[in-house]
Description:
Number of helices: 15
Number of domains: 2
Bound molecules: NADP nicotinamide-adenine-dinucleotide phosphate
CATH topology of the largest domain: Quinone Oxidoreductase, Chain A, domain 1
Shape: elongated
Radius of gyration: 22 Å
CATH architecture of the largest domain: Alpha-Beta Complex
Strand content: 15-25%
CATH class of the largest domain: Alpha Beta
Largest sheet: 7 strands, mixed
Structural class: alpha/beta
Amino acid sequence: MGNAQRSRNTNTAMAPSRAVYTTARAALRCSLPSSSPCLHHRRLISAYGYEQAKVLALSSLGEPKDVLHLHSHSIAPPHSDLLTLRFLASPINPADINQIQGVYPTRLAFGTSLGTTEPIAVGGNEGVAEVIAKGGGVQGLEKGDWVIMKNQGFGTWRTHAQTKAEEVVVVKGEDREGLRPEQVGTVSVNPMTAWRMLRDFVSLKEGEWFVQNAANSGVGRAAIQLGKLLGYKSLNIVRKRDGGMEELKADLTSLGADAVVTDEEFEAKDFRDRVKELTDGGREPIRLGLNCVGGPLVGSMAKHLAAGAHMVTYGAMSKKPVKLPTGLLIFKDIHFDGFWVSKWSEANPREKETCIKEVLKLTREGKFKDVPMSPVTWNHDTKQDELVSAVQGTLEGFRSGKGIFVFGNT
Ligand SMILES: NC(=O)c1ccc[n+]([C@@H]2O[C@H](COP(=O)([O-])OP(=O)(O)OC[C@H]3O[C@@H](n4cnc5c(N)ncnc54)[C@H](OP(=O)(O)O)[C@@H]3O)[C@@H](O)[C@H]2O)c1
């Protein structure tokens, strides 16, 4: 079936003061623990109380532009432990695209429960939604509460959904006070990943360093800020670009980066001298590396690590394999680890909740800045092409902001 048939239904921040860092650091050490914008909208609801919903779906794996289509369906009023949700904001993360392409370990769940003859799956894994109705058996959640998804695979590129209350984490009251949906809808993947990688592999002491590539990514920006709050110093590598290099360096510095260099500068022969200078002749060791990119750069990063340090890989944006000088393993005992937030979140649901609340608190207090975003407004009458091209562009490099669906009049 062709797409046409299927779709018939078819900041820049100022650097926080030292006092701010110190207070926040103390709060962070104890293991992380409304007046939100009023979102008026006209509900599209049938005479029998059915919500009219739209989803960005696929029936086979492939490039987003070839396989994604809009599908409409209706949602019955909820009963027992069910909730009806209206989405507010859903980001478009690189992993969502990999999932659609079929190259991600978590597979999409295809089924016919949304009224199709052939199985479809809904794209997107992260987002925030508002509870608009609840079944009689739901406790601890009220209409108007915001929720985020407990696990991967929810399918968040949709205007509405119906789900069991146990599938969501509630963000209510003071936890969401003063926050925009875009901030709450992007808290559960990137900041969490940065947080865990900074904490779980090495116990850095205040004043010690970590080095990271793709420092301008969502995870990278979170690592700079959370690292700074914990008292760590960061050496940040970004890809050289034709324009806007100085602005990008200034932007990351304003988040708390101690040094920002291009990949070219980092690979230069005399960079060792710069590292010596930065680390007070090695007295402030670099004991952690965060790798989002892969390729030869990782070997170069590893050469600057102190003996016994850890290099944690969490992304593979260049799609190039990591090559390592074996001497680093034998003589310097450098450890190479991987981190996957989905697996961590499944195993640690309570810690995930605490971590989310803590990052939201820091955001509310102005100590944690969200990433630059390129919002795509999704109204009831938004055309399929507009939504699909926003998804397709996500894996292109040198982007000015993370794509995010922001739901308007749905
Ligand atoms: N393992 C986990 O648990 C976990 C959790 C979250 C994210 N991730 C992964 O982390 C990565 C970043 O995610 P994000 O949401 O932070 O992404 P993002 O905000 O969209 O940023 C993408 C980053 O990748 C860089 N990049 C893009 N194409 C590249 C290429 N060909 N070579 C080198 N760098 C390239 C970009 O740099 P330019 O500006 O120079 O293009 C940018 O820094 C993704 O691979 C994602 O899957 C993993």
